[in-house]
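Predict the 3D structure for this chain.
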Amino acid sequence: MGTAGRALAFGAFFLLWFVPARATGVSDTLEELQRRFDNESDGVNKAKMLKRLGDAQFDREREAAKAGDYETVGFVMEKYRDNVRAALDAVKKSRGDAERHPSGYKQMEMHVESGIREVNDLLAVVPEAYRPPLQIVKSDLLAMDRELLRLLFPRRPGEKPLPPKQPNTNSPASQEKEP
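Done. Predicted structure below.
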């Protein structure tokens, strides 16, 4: 190995060893991502953070599935669902009108679709005893996905609006008003 080769090898070693992982953004652990997600107060940022956190959760879930640890698989997917719910609640509080201000909502909707696919793939391979919690997670994710779509697209052509609420004519208060 020549001088240039040694210098290149030393440079690569130096970068890998001495440049902190945080500076490169590569080595954030699932626990660190979860901590930052939990501490985030801005709804849009929380919704955007869901992608990295969710992808890390999917990686952890896949590792557990390969190892046959289906309890961890279920736990991770339940935590993912809880994170989606927390992000949805936070973004609704910070940005009430998703149609006018879709930032955060769009990113969440796309990632929730990935989560639904992930759960569907799991349901095809996990033993029967581990399916009920995953089916609940799937149901919850589908409901949140529908909610996100309704928030993003409130005016849906061809969909009949709900009828207006009729006052209850059998209540004692309504009977007192009549002569």
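The radius of gyration is 24 Å.
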